[in-house]
């Protein structure tokens, strides 16, 4: 049996190598980086220490680059061209699908076919129910809930500082992680993880699961192409029986991946069951009388689903998968971004003071002890510019992945020069099956788009300007937020963008009104997992962002 299996494997590998040898890439004429291993571009693209590889893409190779495949695989494209991005994300979004790697991965993590795992009409139908829970009006009503959480954050941080010698470094990532998880738990689920209680078992377990599942998955990237077939495997009893064997695999990554995705699911089930029970007992009124006055995203989604036409209603497993997508989408991205903001401010005391002055003036103008509301926070020009510039330069999601399901020609704003003939091409045929990587961080740093100072942190570039006016030549990118790619664009753009911006502004303003920040002695390495994750340089024991924090003599 074993010799037969070995012979079959060898024959398959030889056939694949032969096919690869005969393969003529449709992208031979496009410049691109040489792969650093036999695995082709894959190891470079996913290298946790490879952020520089992404950042240099447009300057070295232009706005479309060829990524050479492995000895067994075919080539891919890395796209940052504004016109091509518009075609891929908006015009032809049904042709450039979320990759099966991602839909398989998120289908398993979210235990069902939520937004991140569906395409076409099903995706449109689900977005119709999810988008209304994120309108500016709905987000503005979450402000009191947000302040409840930031008050706990402030008290916990003040207590930690009081218990330590003055000037000792603290891990601000721990603070932003607890804050963003508690914010999305309360505002998203109407639930608490008691995240500021160091002994909270629920916080520890959920936090471990939500922060580990994607970094672990990126260690399994060679297996990602098979996850979609795995989760759709029939008969279901066979898949379930095989899944029971995972804990016995002598490799920790699949075991931990399974454990993490199994930890989060029961919490979402309980939250949904609680809402249903309340609804059965007292209808919508009972939900509206709950602790969040019915303003949490889960109640809104429940309502939106209840009011939908029968054909549009989502079954419970899809509601749960979407709930899980929302919580996941909100957690890692926002906590990492918040710690990035604070470490930037810690290195720039003058910017910190200017932001504090802007806040002080706004509070004085308001003339009461009430905190700034949604609109008042949005009307602070320096805070807004710092927010945009940080999210441009330090894009939390570096790239996304699409798969082409039919041959399509896309236009190019920046022509490609043929490496053989030097001929200029103003459009590009992308053939069926090509993996297409959309370099969001690279597009946000392109010197052709943003000018020669594209890689400099310069909040002033946004003063008095909207979206494309801050680029070098009024270039329009198809991004949802301020003409940049941070939250993507088109029908699959991030629905939680307003939630994220409001959270970032509100948390930062709360911290700046009570504390000052100073740079710590160590440098931070931002590692590329699916979102950017901060580590102290030379210390791989876990994500951290040490800074020195001091209470303000007079907080306001
Ligand atoms: C700085 C913070 C955030 C960033 C940079 C960010 C970025 C993104 C990006 C790039 C995508 C597209 C992924 C893809 O197509 O492969 C996305 C999707 C998504 N985000 Fe966010 N996000 C952030 C915060 C949030 C928040 C706060 C929420 C919810 C409260 C959220 C919920 C979602 C959901 C549900 C999706 C899936 C949308 C779909 O497939 O239709 N995100 N996000």
Automatic annotation (TrEMBL):
InterPro entries with a match to the protein in the record: Cyt_P450 (IPR001128), Cyt_P450_E_grp-IV (IPR002403), Cyt_P450_sf (IPR036396), Cytochrome_P450_monoxygenase (IPR050121)
One annotated GO molecular function is: iron ion binding
Q: Where does this protein act, in terms of pathway?
A: Secondary metabolite biosynthesis; terpenoid biosynthesis
Q: Name one Pfam family in it.
A: p450
Q: Which UniProt keywords apply?
A: Heme, Iron, Membrane, Metal-binding, Monooxygenase, Oxidoreductase, Transmembrane, Transmembrane helix
**Annotated compartments:** Membrane
Please give the chief subcellular localization of this protein.
membrane
* GO CC term (a single one): membrane
Q: Which cofactor does it need?
A: heme
Residues binding heme are: 494
UniProt record similarity statement: Belongs to the cytochrome P450 family.
Q: What is this protein called?
A: Cytochrome P450
Query: What is the originating organism of this protein?
Result: Hypsizygus marmoreus (White beech mushroom)
